[in-house]
Specification:
Blueprint: E1 2-3, E2 6-12, H1 22-29, E3 39-44, E4 53-59, E5 64-65, H2 69-83, E6 87-92, E7 95-103, E8 106-111, E9 135-136, E10 139-140, E11 143-146, E12 150-155, H3 164-172, E13 182-190, E14 193-200, E15 204-206, H4 210-222, E16 230-235, E17 238-244, E18 250-255
Parallel strand pairs: 2-3, 4-6, 12-13, 14-16
Antiparallel strand pairs: 1-2, 3-4, 4-5, 6-7, 7-8, 8-18, 9-10, 11-12, 13-14, 14-15, 16-17, 17-18
Bound molecules: ligand LBFN2T5F.
The ligand N[C@@H](CCC[C@H](N)C(=O)O)C(=O)O binds at residues 6, 39, 59, 65, 67-70, 149, 182, 200-201, 206, 209-211.
Length: 280
């Protein structure tokens, strides 16, 4: 499935648990010799009462991510299609997310309030997360925010003028960020419209990033660049709508599309050494 071209291999691990090794994850996500995708997701049985499923998110290098909001919309759509429910609650490492269908392919996610404290990002040392004293070429003074996963957002005059693969890795891998960070390069084109591109962990440029879109809107508001509560975020793959609720939580709305479905071939179901899983 994909959300604006941010694409995923989704394995149903409910009837038959699927705990892939790091090698298997890398192979499945490989666009040349595997299936290909920006992340691998595994749907599991819920472990918390009142929730309808649990989702694990693996990056292309085999590491586990806490949050992926384009992927969450896709899994919500799958589970809604399957169950006939109007809305459901999904468990992720990054927290609980409530998802509902707006119409057709459009799915809305209700998210808990983001975290701004330095140790929630996490940073290696106390800092004011509004503007971190970091720079790489035209990217400087990023704002840090956690949507369950860590984000840095840099504001620039022109998003398209920045050579993101050249400059973003230095910020992503700065020692101040022990877990790394997704690096958003954002241009405010109107109070209610941002243009954004995200250099995601572990070093890939994606066509869209749901948590990155939320991070950019939150950072723009916190820096006083806009006071709008509803902002459209334009990414290379298309548009996402972010609304900031009165209670500080968010609603993210966008499409979730099916590309194809099939059976995972045996050679991609590696049973080798398991990766260390993150704990909630
Ligand atoms: N594409 C995602 C974010 C995926 C996880 C990220 N690479 C990380 O390591 O935090 C989204 O839509 O939110």
């Amino acid at each position: 499935m994909h959300g604006l071209g941010n694409d995923f291999v989704i394995v149903d691990g409910r009837a038959q648990p699927f705990r892939p090794s790091a090698d298997a994850i890398r192979l499945i996500c490989d666009r040349h010799v595997g299936i290909g995708g920006d992340q691998l997701l595994v749907i599991e049985e819920p472990s918390v009462p009142q929730t309808h499923g649990r989702m694990r998110i693996y990056n292309v290098d085999g590491t586990e991510a806490e949050t992926c909001l384009n992927a969450t919309r896709c899994v919500v759509r799958l589970l809604i299609d399957e169950s006939g429910r109007d809305s459901l609650l999904l468990e992720t490492l990054g927290g609980l997310v409530e998802g509902s269908r707006c119409s057709g392919e459009r799915i809305a996610l209700r998210l808990e309030a983001p975290r701004w404290e330095w140790d929630a990002i996490p940073l290696a040392a106390p800092r004011d997360t509004l503007k971190l004293d970091l720079a790489s070429g035209p990217l400087h003074w990023p704002t840090a925010v956690s949507l369950g996963n860590p984000h840095l957002v840099c504001f620039v005059e022109s998003r398209d003028a920045v050579d993101v693969p050249r400059w973003a890795p230095a910020l992503q891998n700065d020692p101040l960020l022990p877990e790394g960070a997704n690096v958003g390069v954002a241009e405010l084109v109107a109070p209610d419209r941002l243009r954004l591109v995200v250099w995601e962990r572990p070093g890939i440029l994606t066509r869209a990033c749901g948590s990155g879109a939320c991070a950019a809107v939150l950072a723009a508001r916190r820096r006083g660049l806009t006071s709008e509560r509803r902002v459209t975020v334009e990414m290379p793959g298309g548009l996402l709508e972010v609304a900031v609720r009165e209670d500080g939580g968010l609603v993210l709305t966008g499409p979730a599309a099916v590309a194809f479905a099939g059976q995972l071939p045996e050679h991609l179901q590696d049973t080798g050494p398991k990766m260390k899983e993150r704990q909630p």
